[in-house]
Structures are given as structure tokens and as C-alpha cells.
Amino acid sequence: MTTQANIYIDQGADFSTGIDVVDDLGQVVDLTFATIEGQARKVYSSEVIFQFDILVTYPLEGKAIIQLTPEVTETLPPGKYKYDIMINMLNGAPKRTKLIEGIVYIIETVTGAPV
Q: Quick check: helix, strand or coil at residue 73?
């Protein structure tokens, strides 16, 4: 179920991207009783650099949005970080699964940069 995807985030700008959660057979996953969380770190064993805000938008259709506000992205140091997105299924037997993992690149922004 884990998907590999790299993300590019501009400092000081809104960031959002949609995700569609499907199982290994391509069937939509009902997110009604699920929580989704995601973090980025320099390396897997280091401190958390930031956490994504994740909103389940259409639970029956397996849809969610990963987002960061400009207030958060402007504080992020430029560079390359590892991230993943985990889902916690709470209906029936609890199950924790990694949905997405990859590299997140924080890109410096020229316009509006401090002088």
C-alpha cells in the first residue's frame, strides 16, 4: 500500500496536495474511522522538522488533503528531508499502515525574501 512520492514546498507559500487512499487491490478505503498523520525529519532518527496538517475531506471516497500554511513554510530551513504519511484505521482491529513516503524538498523563495 505504500506509495513513493517526492514533494516540493516553496518557503512562505501555501502547500496542499490531495491523496486518494486505496488498498493493494485498488479499492477505495473508507476513512470514516481513520486518522492520518505525517512528519518530516532530516533522517529517520532525528527530531521532527514539521508535521503536515491532514484533513479527511471525503471519508467514504478515501480522499484527504495534506497541507501547510505559509506561516509554517516560511520557517522551514531549505533542504531535503525524509517524510511519510501514516494511516490509523480504528474500525475493527486497530491497524497502522504507511501510505506514502519519500523526500520533501523545501525550496527557497526569492520574492519577499528578507534582505
A: helix
**Cα(82)–Cα(52) distance, integer angstroms:** 13
Look up the pTM and report it. Answer: 0.87
Identify the three-state secondary structure at position 60.
Answer: helix
- What is the pairing mode between strands 95-107 and 3-4? parallel
Cβ–Cβ < 8 Å for 22, 16 = no
pLDDT the model gives residue 1: 58
Beta bridge partners of 35: 88
| Rounded percentage of the chain residues whose pLDDT exceeds 70 | 94
DSSP H helices in 1-115? 70-73
